[in-house]
């Protein structure tokens, strides 16, 4: 059997073309499966080299092995490592990156707290994808993320929870498409957001609206399996109810949005029975528009925004939303000791 | 009914929720697209598939509807069924997404009327108002004239008469008209058509579609030149020897005999597509990517094209007509035997030109254009020949091949660069090799079709990829004397066999200057 050193040597000499190197990181079997599915979606459309790092918590202490699958258009490599061997992984990766191609990183854990592998790779990377869904410390996470973005201005930070909301962020300005409707939204009295499985994207969506419409956060409390969030609008308080709703193909997607203001204005964006589209219904005391329907890719496709993830440039809306969360979100946890920056600074000096 | 204040939201309203990024530079505004001549070929083959794929990619405005306007007696249901079949056959994405189609078809309507019928336009106006109420399309209109050009003035006049074309200064809503080529069939008729249309339309409301400009590879020309300094540094007469622009088709004129008898290759392909390609490849890099800036650079090229000397046109312009021959080994008939073609027709199915630019960047650089039907293969490309090296480091009986940068427009969209390489071994032999980039290898198989980009741009109000009046007229100014000379001068046709690379005279146009057409 070929030794790992021989494998690395062979891979580093092999000629390969592609659009990018993509390194992915998982630490549990569910995330591993998720990333393996993601890789299959990527390689169908884009020639690339993917390197999936799996830090197996159950692996024997000495485990560090490399598995590969290669064809004409892609090269898939999986590195299985124990926690004890994780520090060696960057040194396995460096020789097998395809030269001259951009390096993308996909981290399923909190990238702001990653101390071992990410700090060594990030200084060479162009994009960092992450999908961190722990909303309980969203304020602290947002703050750490902003700090990380400030430390690495050359890197494009692609938050998948933000990207998957892209459909809603594209849709809402077309629903609230006039100065009047924006004012109605700004002066909403109640907002209900439904999500599928987990609420991270719902929290992002309402945070984005709040950052754009200059709402302030007052308090929040758990209600049933959801959250009730009290925001301050320009004239009155807005009660936001974030709750589990229709179960879509994707975990965490926002599936419905309902807005009501105290003067009788309502705007309901709700899925149809087969979850194939969103029905928009706007009404007020004076008018009742005919409902119209829209498709949202995120309702049906598992990885709906691949082109955006790979090629688009994050906008200021995202950064502004993070700032809003870090300063307005009710649970203002102090940021933990800046482990990331200390480790990163140490690695820079290597 | 919408609230009154809603209708009066000013056009300069900035929506705080608008999140513009590189993947979605600007949202297309709500609008209704009315396609005149909707029962014609173009609607089913190109326009509806384009709209469907825009919807699939979330690029269609949320509030959108499409109305097919034509003479044939149909209703919405029949038209929708026909369009479903057409989209199923011609969409670049397959298979048809039934769920998407079930929503999308609800936005498609049919309006039966003659182009001259005032009552029909009045009914259209009311129908569009009803669509505005139901779909929130805000009064914005795109009128796509997929008809014979002879109908353009009539339709535009009727649209204006029935308040379907708005004052261009109206900030509450807009109207735009898309016309297909050919825009006129010579300089005089193009000027006349322009005058007739601009009685009712501002130039900014008129979008002359040239679908080549919507092709990804054509759009990439600017990107290639402006984001790769290595190329811009050598994009001039000091390094470039000559350029060849080729539009080659293996098909004949098919069922378009009647059309072709009135058009010919110069009008159908050279005057529009090839002149646009020439402008893009020869222009100075624009200072920015605004539509006006790019148009300004293109028109500079058009105006600096040296007119062909009246007494020497045959030295600079060659025409041909295909005879019988073989395509891919199968026998085919000659042009004069095609359906609805005169057996004594002198219409050209091949044209080749040598053009020069009176521009410091291109001093002494010839631009060779050729376009033809029933040539051996289908290919559209721009080949940039660089000057040969005068550095004779390697002792060789023959000079190294020139470097050639090839921009393949279709098929096999991509870019290749021919360079010279040493053959491995103890000898000093040199062999040309090709560095090759193909879109399909890197970006997947389904790039957007040209019409998708163009329709979306029109709805956004971006005219960058449309031809402006002055570009079109400058192009006609160059081409018309050639047309007139050919009309007045007899020639023996056919003069090339189908399946060959065109008439001998076209080869001679190059060989007498020690050039040679690229073998494709």
What would you say about this model in short?
The complex is a heterodimer of chains A (350) and B (520). Chain A is of the alpha/beta class and 350 residues long. Helices cover 35% and strands 28% of the residues of chain A.
Description:
- Chain A has 350 residues and is an alpha/beta fold.
- Chain A is built from 13 helices and 15 strands.
- Chain A has an eight-stranded mixed beta sheet with strand order 9-10-11-8-12-13-14-15. Chain A has a seven-stranded mixed beta sheet with strand order 3-4-2-1-5-6-7.
- In chain A, helix 9 crosses helix 12.
- Chain A is elongated and about 75 Å long.
- Chain B is α/β, with parallel strands linked by helices.
- In chain B, the strands form four sheets. An eight-stranded mixed beta sheet of chain B has the order 8-12-13-7-14-15-16-17, with helices on both faces. A seven-stranded mixed beta sheet of chain B has the order 3-2-1-4-5-6-18, sandwiched between helices. Chain B has a two-stranded parallel sheet with strand order 9-19.
- In chain B, helix 2 crosses helix 15, helix 7 packs antiparallel against helix 16 and helix 11 crosses helix 12.
- Chains A and B meet through helix 7, helix 8, helix 9, strand 15 and helix 11 of A and helix 4, helix 5 and helix 14 of B.
> Strand sequence of the main sheet of chain B, in spatial order?
8-12-13-7-14-15-16-17
Low-confidence stretches of chain A: 331-350
C-alpha termini separation of chain B: 60 Å
**Percentage of residues in DSSP E strands of chain B:** 15-25%
The total count of strands of chain B amounts to 19
Order of neighbouring strands in the sheet with most strands of chain A? 9-10-11-8-12-13-14-15
Radius of gyration of chain A, taken over Cα atoms and rounded to an integer in Å: 22 Å
Structural class of chain B: alpha/beta
Query: Uncertain spans of chain B, ≥5 residues at pLDDT below 50?
Result: 1-8
Helix content of chain A: 25-40%
Largest sheet of chain A: 8 strands, mixed
Distance between the termini of chain A: 34 Å
The average pLDDT value of chain B, as a whole number, equals 90
By DSSP, the count of extended strands of chain A is 15
Largest interface, C-beta closer than 8 angstroms, per-chain residues? A-B, 47 and 38 residues
